[in-house]
Amino acid sequence: MMGASASRIALGVALLGLATVPLWVGNSYYVDVASQILLFAVFALALNVLVGYGGLVSLGHAGLFAVSGYTAGLMLQAGFGHAAGAAGAVLATLLASAVFAVLALRSTGIGFLMITLALGQILWGIAYRWADLTNGDNGVSISTRPAPFGISLADAPSFYYATLLVFLLALASMAAFERSPFGASLRGTRDQARRMTALGYNVWLVRFLAFLFSGFWCSIAGLLYLYNKEFISPQVSALQASAEVLLMVISGGTATLLGPIAGAAIVVIMKYVVSAYVVRWNLVLGVIFVAIISFMPEGLVPGSVRIWGFARQRWLARSPARKHVRGAPP
Amino acid sequence: MTALAVTGLTKSFGGLRVTKGVDLAVEPGERRLIIGPNGAGKTTLFNLITGELAPDAGSILLFGQDITRAPCRRRAHLGLARTYQIITLFTRDTILRNVELALLGLSGLRWNPVVGLKRQRHLAARAREALALVGLDHAADRPLTETSYGERRRVEIAMAMAQDPKVLLLDEPFAGLSIDERRDVRQLLAAIPRDVTIVMIEHNMDVALDFADRITLLHFGDVIVEGTRAEVVADPRTREVYLGE
Predict the structure, then answer these.
(1) pLDDT digits (tens, 9 = 90+) for A28-55
(2) Is B89 in Cβ contact with A192 (below 8 Å)?
(3) Which is the most buried residue in A217, B158, B217, B244, by most CB within 10 A?
(4) In what side-by-side order are the strands of the sheet with B197-202?
(5) What is the chain B residue with the closest CA to A209?
(6) For residues B64 and B2, is the Cβ–Cβ distance under 8 A?
């Protein structure tokens, strides 16, 4: 299989590239940007479970992301250790996801979107206004990053490697999920919910469990964010943050593994790299999104694959002799 | 024991009474044809039996078990399968995956988020068996978007048959088919073993007449005539409904 070995080589090159980022990037600021790309990629992959495979567009996921960061941050401030803080953050986020799911899954489509948006706004309100609990606009700081197995994550490269490891775990779990019977069940509820019910599926429960799966990886991404910044503030839970991660998923390509990662890379690079050179980087980001939606409505990754295939076919058609040498395009 | 016993089933949409106290008793292994003009309430009756709609009154028994209030998904697990008049398939998937989804619906495997679905060879083998029943095993790996209307009708039947149902509800399985395709579908339905009870809706009386043991004629939500093929065809009320005498 030509295609399979080619993609295996591409995967190997990508892994090698990711593993050596601190070596060829050098500057620790840019290593930190790479860490952020990866942690936002985990966040976008988590949202993609619902948006891509479930057909359930959530605009409240930043709230879940913030529940995780705030829970861990507040627990650390209260004197708990890192292990307890992380466990508490995951549990609190799963609980919040369950509440989100029970309320939002009464509906799909616009109804689902509006309920998640409202719930996200409630969490933002708590973060911003309930100052006794969340310290309001001042946010929550933590004094140290965790040191798993005694390995310090204080400097940018070591934090990058820890994030990369978590990112790869998230990616592997998403890849397994995508290929699994449960993944097929979730896609089925997206495409023909009524038929799925008649076939014996509990459509609500499939969606609920998918929401928890999404919530779990949101909590992991939220933790990474807190550890990376050693600070969390209400803007993390704001509607704009929810919209940003949704744009990552949609612009990269929903229901794909690579799409949300590409989307996260675009947004983070705009925010932290291009913004150093272009004051109105938001404008550049907007133009990029408009271009993607205009020319690749299915998203950057599937769109590039389509255009590449189209260009290759045109090229092969123009030189008929090559057809026999290279074999027909798939 | 009666395979499917419907008693006094009633359903209204606002002021419109679509099903008016329908009684139906289908024996195990029977082939029952439900005919009636457009708007007779045939598909609504199916939706009530499968649980996609909740009845206002009446009861539904499947092999003696009261399923009137059982959720739709539960009825599939109890051996009730259906096809749809308006084809309802998974258009982003292959033919094989469509049938696999039908098989997964009744299997605990559907909750598994870890194993690869493509590696479940026993599942694929069973799906291919079901496709062989409808003569589509050669096309199993084709995307559904590249299938003809007639093939999709047969995928509908393969999905229902894959669930190994006790009672099979077929909603206009001949709708939109050419004469040749109708013949094929008729043959494949005739080949279904008698341990499956079949209730079929058909809008055109002559299409499926020879398939039926007994026929029920519905009109404006009422059972007008019920009996053997000869009885129903000979009944003057049948002519009245169909010819508007």
Answers:
(1) 899 999 999 999 999 999 999 999 999 9
(2) yes
(3) B158
(4) B80-82, B167-171, B197-202, B31-35, B214-219, B222-228
(5) B111
(6) yes
